[in-house]
């Protein structure tokens, strides 16, 4: 590209200065609006002292609204104004240019100063093209550092329009500038450069299920997050009250995306990795692939169903008591039959209020002595309810059950064999037992979380209100808070025990990396979205689940008959062309049938495959070169078995942090990750250690390696050695 001549520089500076004047005005207005919102909050607090209930309600509403507005205004500070539209002459004369920003603002006369990027009037900013300008003559992107305009980038969309010749055109294209920037450890919003095909998916109507497919780096994740922000804007009442749930593959991934929505002014969204979907349980640890395949399989639903119906291990097998002239006995057989009778009436925990009466009915039928019969059933019941042995028996025979407690029953191999009859092979049983043996009681894997959720629903919630005549009433937890909004719910998440299933539902569920959900995970996520609208994002070629047909069936069951709307993204914005060509060739070679997007940016530097004699030296040398060659982040991607070893080699590297251990230095530039950990992430440089071992790690190792090969924005290097370890 030719270097700019002096005249171009002057013109660009003039345009920047011109835009700066407008941006300054917007920031002044932002300050005024913030002050007004703060005054409103103070006034709201004042109303609380009026001394009547109405005052309090009014105060709460005012303070809440003001606090929300203040949060939005504060979040919008960075890159507040990013777009300008000059519309064709008639409109230009009527309205002046239209400025687009992260939020909408009005001036002191209540005239529109800045249009929220989600408003209908802003849509044309994203959808106009040279082929179809839709009335836009010039589209301008303002690049800012804080409140300072650093560059403007123009697209002349309609050179034939009246007045087009008077509009200066400067810059080299906002998209390329944005794509070439060095990466840090978090995803950024793309409000300024959303492309037309992406905009369609973002603004799709909220009915039913929107699926967004596309190959690596096409913006599926970032588009889905902007869609969440769009939905909150377009139907705030519904989505803020009902909640928006975003489910992603891992904690590292959730940290990577967590700033996008707040930067768009939205905080009312629950971001959960698959190991955190169930309230009260958190896991970031994956089982080995073979174990994960068993735990994720649809047949585990049947295993959980059977498990939820078992007698409590260790509970008494029979019960005997003397009443007047009779010895009354409930044998093991009787108890089994009573258990089945109770279970036939509904979920196990919901039967708690019926337990005592069911047992007492069975015992009363055995009272034949004259004294007993003569005094009648009421006295019998009173006597038994005062009988400590009876009450204790009832409590141990039918306690309120927690899913985590019940799943632990399966550590007993005999029980596992019994409930697994016809469902699990001996190999499956051995894998499950090994995965649970020697673990701390609260140490669950990500894959266990879906089993726990299945059990929670099978067991049901214990009744909320104690039953007045029920001696077992104190088993029931009365102190469950009533949760009304997503914010309440997020604040109330405690680590100790799982909460009520009835609080699980959301108004919108967004599933990222959907190709990786196992059937059991689809069941778990599906329960959160029974009444919801959905956004589902994925790329089948990147799937690490070995039986896609089973997952597809579970997904269809989760979504039910909600109407589907499909969107496909076709441009890879992440990888350089050189990196992506390498990955695409790999996908073709190993037969992944991948959806291959077009990469739009070239660096002139292709990936390098290096054979080394000594892996330790080879990795350190390669990392040193790579981290010198790129400005931003670097990932060293290793086979699972080599993770600790390689991380040890880099321990002294100051810029390195161990992400998967939740290292506090997760802002560090260099991370050591396994192939699966890299899902959804991106780095400027990728160093792949022993790629063939990553490929052999699991049945879907080739898909994992394809994911790894599609993570680099600038450079990629592979290091292989044939030396024995
Ligand atoms: N319109 C855009 N403008 C600027 N950057 C974009 C745009 N679309 C996508 N990107 C950038 O491209 C990169 C890839 O986006 P994203 O991670 O959302 O892709 P993806 O399709 O989810 O990828 P994968 O499936 O490989 O994980 C991100 O850095 C994102 O910010």
Automatic annotation (TrEMBL):
Q: Does the keyword ATP-binding apply?
A: yes
Domain UvrD-like helicase ATP-binding: where? Answer: 193-576
Species the sequence originates in: Nocardioides iriomotensis
This protein's GO CC annotations: cytosol
* Name this polypeptide is given: Helicase
Query: Which residues are recorded as binding ATP?
Result: 214-221
Gene Ontology biological process terms in this record: recombinational repair
- Molecular function GO labels: 3'-5' DNA helicase activity; ATP binding; DNA binding; hydrolase activity
Q: Which UniProt keywords apply?
A: ATP-binding, Helicase, Hydrolase, Nucleotide-binding
Pfam families from the UniProt entry: AAA_19 (PF13245)
